[in-house]
Design brief:
mainly alpha, 99 residues
Length: 99
């Protein structure tokens, strides 16, 4: 989904800038200056949106990794408390670790 959004933004923003610049050049008789300015603005917007999408994706991935680490730590703590409450299980695990 992120790749599709990025591809659309990279295509639409420069195209919109180009078309707006072309219209403005025709309307104000300033060819090709406003067309080039519109295209440059469109490319700038596309790059800015692309960088923002990549930043958001990286941020989401970091949060996901942090959540996985917390979940793993919680499972380990629960297992440790489960083993501590059952001495026979603790002895069994100690014996198998010693072998």
């Amino acid at each position: 989904m992120l790749i599709a959004g990025l591809a659309i933004e990279m295509l639409v923003a420069p195209l919109a800038g180009f078309l707006t610049g072309h219209w403005a050049d025709d309307h104000f008789d300033t060819a090709p200056f406003l067309l080039l300015a519109g295209l440059a603005l469109g490319v700038f917007v596309a790059i800015r949106v692309g960088m923002r999408l990549v930043y958001v994706a990286n941020r989401y991935e970091e949060q996901d990794n942090t959540a996985e680490a917390r979940e793993k730590k919680l499972k380990e703590e629960r297992f440790a408390s489960f083993v501590e409450k059952r001495p026979e299980l603790k002895e069994l695990l100690d014996d198998s670790a010693g072998e």
